[in-house]
Amino acid sequence: MLPTISSALQQANAVQLTDPLDDTGARRPHGSEPIKKLGKMALEQARPLAERFIHFVNKTGSPYHSVQAIKEILTAAGFEELQERTSWKMTRGGKYLVTRNDSCIAAIVVGENFTKESHGGFCVTATHSDSPCLRLRPRAFAEKEGYHMGSVECYGGGLWHTWLDRGLGMAGKVVLRKENKVIERLLRFERPLFYVPNLAIHLQTAEEIGAFKINKENHLQPVLCSAIADQLGTASSNSDDSPKTAEQRLPPALARLVGKTLGMPDAALLDWDFCLMDATPSRISGIYEEFIESPRLDNLASTFAAFEALVDASSGKECDQQCAGREDILMAVAFDHEEIGSQSLSGANSSLLETWMQRCLRALDCESDFFEILAKSFLGVVIKENANQNYASNASTMAFVRLIANEANVPVQDFVVRNDSRCGGTVGAMLSARLGVRTVDIGIPQWAMHSCREICGVTDLMYLQKLLKHPRREAAPAAKVAML
Known about the structure:
Layout: H1 33-57, H2 63-76, E1 80-81, E2 95-100, E3 104-110, E4 122-128, E5 133-144, E6 147-155, E7 168-178, E8 181-194, H3 206-211, E9 223-226, H4 227-236, H5 252-262, E10 268-278, E11 283-285, E12 291-294, H6 297-313, H7 316-322, E13 329-335, H8 352-363, H9 370-374, E14 378-379, E15 382-384, H10 395-407, E16 413-415, H11 427-435, E17 438-439, E18 441-443, E19 454-457, H12 458-469, H13 477-483
Keywords: Aminopeptidase, Hydrolase, Metal-binding, Metalloprotease, Protease, Zinc
GO molecular function: aminopeptidase activity; metallopeptidase activity; zinc ion binding
EC number: 3.4.11.21
């Protein structure tokens, strides 16, 4: 289970928590050459994966675009797409993908030797495709003080003050009707379209500045354009570019932009699901380029690492040497709506994962063994534990991860919430309770979680992917036996 957490960032590879000793037993400063060399090597090794992640996240902006970007990775790696509306045909050794609502996706790798008798089970890595954001309402047009505004609502528990004073792009899905056919299209506008301005300093007293709290309804409605600029733009453009709507629910300028981008002026715009997003691209930052600065790190960092790990563990020469005769079914799943409780057809608090597992077994003629196989399954850096079961980890599953991490040379930390601080939750606890599957919650630390822009470590992403890939290679028999 891989949601990221908000603890302070610690680069375990570059900084040791205790002072190291030299050959004489004296304490060495942290800036000693061996530690510098270790940190530099790790950064160099982690750089290619970090750059691929940045390329990935710069194509996203909505759960639909996240799933589309994951699907591109899987398709390029030879995964075959299955459709929920048709029967599934699967073979041992096969690689498959399936989506629901265009916002949830699973990758499935069937072990060559998967059978009930082989003690095989499911090994699932679960993440989520959504992030806190501002979403356009069904009636998204507002006009105030001579400006055309977008009307938005807050999705999830964001740090909403961080959305002020930055250019906001937009990504999502539109639904149209053309020639009596309903058509769905994904759209992404990476350039800044919206802006939520702060109040100028001379219009506030020091007391007002200190006491200011964001009112989500009054303070977060973004400016799109001035009314006069829109009039001038209408006069100089072809009004036929705007798709037909029964009523003006989108700002006129935005409706024209949608129609022009789609190239479908005759289509009737029925509805949309648009997320606003930080228009500044993700990037590697810091004087030593040790940080990734990006929107949507929660949870796309874990999502990217999970699917990359599954691809690496199921293809290539390295896999052929280490994974021959695999007995498990490997899955990576990115659910939607985690930020708002997961209670939806594409969320983790639904029958989705259970249904997909059963369909896999039916296609492999093992459906009658579902519950027996489930008992052998595992949902599987920072190990997150909570005595009140907000996280799904327990002593057995945490020990399993520690053994795997030790064999993979991946440093780990433990994360426990203070007694006087509220604890977050993940999809892990609900999946574990629903399926009765052993689960551990893990992730990488980050700064400013749920901000419009978050930060994590370059090497942390590499370590997470390395950890997730390692058990996929059946390289930890001792750990696996300990879990049976």
